Amino acid sequence: MTKQRYFFLILILGTLATLGPFSIDMYLPGFPAIAKYLHTTTAQVSLSLSSFFVGISAGQLLYGPLLDRFGRKKPLYIGLVIYIIASVGCLMVKSIEALIILRFIQAIGSCAAAVASVAMVRDLFPAKDNAKVFALLMLVISASPMLAPTVGGYVTAAFGWQWVFILLAVIAGLILIAVIFSLPESYQPNPNFSLKPKPIVKSFLSVIIEPQFYTYAISGAFAFSGLFAYVAGSPLVFMDVFKVSGTTYGWIFAFLSIGLIGSSQVSSLLLKKFKSEQVVPAAMIAQVIVSLAFFAGAAMGGFGLYGTIAMIFLFLCCLGLTNPNTAALSIAPFSHNAGTASSLMGALQLGVGALASFGVSLFNSSSAMPMAAIMAITSAIAMLILFIGRKNIKHHFTPDPNEVMVAH
C-alpha cells in the first residue's frame, strides 16, 4: 500500500468516525435559537440530544451483525442515506417532538459510519499497524469536540440553526460519494452468518457473565455518563444562566474538551509505570471528589462562570483517565468475540449516557444544579460498582498500552 493510499484510507475512515461526534456537538450552540423557533425550552431541546444517544446505543448492537452478514459497504450506504434524509428532516421541523424523533433516526444512520470505520481498520490494515491507525483516528475524533461546537456557533450566528443540519447533510453526502467510489469492500458478505436473535443473544450473554467485563464496562459506563450530563446541560448553563453567546459557548466547549483529550494522553504516560487496574480506582475516586465538590458548590449558589468552567474541566480530566482504561479492561478477557464485547460495551456506555442526559433534561432549572447532581450521582454509582465488582474477579486480564489506546 502506497503512503498516499494509506493516508487517503485513514482520511475517509476518520471522517466516518467523526460523523457522530459532529452530529452531537455542532448543534449545541443553537439550543436557545431552536427553543425559541419551536416555542419550547432549552431543557426540552436537550431531549433531542438524549434521543440521539439512544439511537447510537441501539445502532451499536444493530450494525455489528449486519456488517458481518452483508459486508461493510451495503449497511454503510443504507446508514448514510438514512442520516442524510433525517438531517434534511431536522431543518424542516415545526415541533420539538418531530426533532426528537428525527434525531433518533439520524443517530441510527450515523452509527453505521462509526461501527463500520472501526471494523474496516481491522480489515484494511495489517494487525501490526492497527494501534497506529486507531491512534490517528482517535486524534481526528478528539479534534471534533473542539471544532464542531465552534463551527456550529458561527454558522448559527451567521445563518441560523437550520444551516447546521444543512451542513451535516452535505458532509454526509460527500462521505457517501467517497465511500462509493474510493473505499474498497473490505469484507466479503457471509451468508452463513445468522441474524436470528437466539445466537446473537447467546453471544452477548457469553460476554456479560465475565466478571471483568461487567465490572469495568458498567462502572465505566456510569463514570462516562457524566460527560453526557455535561453535554446535555451545558447549553442551558452557559447560554441561559451565564448569558454567553453561541460563539463564546463554542469556544468554552472547545477549551473544556482539552481536559478530556489531554488527560487521556497523560493516561498513556501513566501506563508506563502503572497498570490500568491501578489507574482506574484512583481516577474514579478523584472524579467522585470533584463531582461532589461541584454539586455542593452549585447547591450553595454556584461557582460563577469561571468557577463552573474550572470544575467541569477537572471532572473531564478525571474522565480522560477512567474511560480508556475501563474500556480496555472490559475487552481484555476476549479474543475471538472482541467485536461483540466492544459493541456491547458501547451500547452500555451510550445507553447509560442517554439516561444521564435525559435526567438533566427533566429539570427546567435556571442553575447548574441538575447537571452537577447527575454528574455526582453517576460518579458515585460507578465507584460503588467498581469496588464491589472487583471482588468477583478471580484473574485480571491486563491490556497492554496499545490496547488501551485502541479502546479509547
TrEMBL record:
Matches recorded under Pfam families: MFS_1
Subcellular localization, as worded in the UniProt entry = Cell membrane
Q: Which residues cross the membrane?
A: 7-24, 44-63, 75-94, 100-121, 133-155, 161-183, 204-231, 251-271, 278-297, 303-322, 343-363, 369-388
Gene Ontology CC, one term: plasma membrane
PROSITE patterns, alphabetically? Answer: MFS (PS50850)
Gene3D superfamilies annotated for this entry? Multidrug resistance protein D
Under the heading InterPro entries, the entry gives:
Efflux_drug-R_Bcr/CmlA (IPR004812), MFS (IPR011701), MFS_dom (IPR020846), MFS_trans_sf (IPR036259)
Q: What CDD domains does the annotation carry? A: MFS_MdfA_MDR_like (cd17320)
NCBIfam families for the chain: efflux_Bcr_CflA
Q: Which family does it belong to?
A: Belongs to the major facilitator superfamily. Bcr/CmlA family.
Database matches in PANTHER family: MAJOR FACILITATOR SUPERFAMILY, POLYAMINE TRANSPORTER 2-RELATED
The name of this protein is Major facilitator superfamily (MFS) profile domain-containing protein
Query: What is the organism field in this record?
Result: Mucilaginibacter polytrichastri
At the highest ranks, the source species' classification is: Bacteria, Pseudomonadati, Bacteroidota, Sphingobacteriia, Sphingobacteriales
